[in-house]
Amino acid sequence: METKQRKELAFSLGDFYAKPIAIVSFELLLSLGLVIFLGLFAIKPTLTTMSDLIKEIDDKKELNQQLEKKVVALGTAQGVYLTYQSRLGLLDEAIPSQPQLIKSLKTLEKLATDDQVTIESLSMATIPDETTADVSSDKLQRVALPVNVTVVGDYLAIRSYVESLRNMRRSFVVDTVSFSIEENRGDRKLRATITLNMPYFGVPS
Known about the structure:
By secondary structure, the chain is α+β, with helices and mostly antiparallel strands. The protein folds into two domains: 2-79; 96-129 and 137-202, Alpha-Beta Plaits (2-Layer Sandwich). The protein has helices at 2-18, 21-84, 88-94, 101-114, 155-167, and strands at residues 118-123, 141-143, 146-152, 173-184, 187-197, 200-202. Strands 1-3-5-4 form a four-stranded antiparallel β-sheet, covered by helices on one side. It has a two-stranded antiparallel sheet with strand order 2-6. It is rod-shaped and about 165 Å long.
């Protein structure tokens, strides 16, 4: 019985050592390659996800920096607005959002009376549209409304009238003043033709 077991053991050992080592090495390399291949397929989605997350974090950091700059700019703008808030009404009075033609012409007439000059004629190339329309503020532009006014009076009165126009809260931009003298039966009159414009914010025609 013992002899039989020894024979079986010797046969098993002989059979084991009879296998070529190349077969074992090939199977080992094949197994190792299979493990690496499966590992790459398992890890690749994780690596892709990590790369996307890193990019998203960088983008959000850049966006956060831009938002911080905008917050600072808004804070500065708010400070400037609060500083000049009380003067905004003056700005609207100086350059209104509508032509306010009737009101402006009445101002010209009142100043003439105050400075003791007589308005002889008043002409305009166009009559502006006074209708109110919903227009976004980014489309509004400064529009010049040209007016020619001819007045009669002495030199000091005409000069005072021009200065009064320049000093009004409602902006009257005096471009030119031309003088002429009219003589009728020994009576001499000094006439001045004043070219000015009355700006307002609107949509150019």
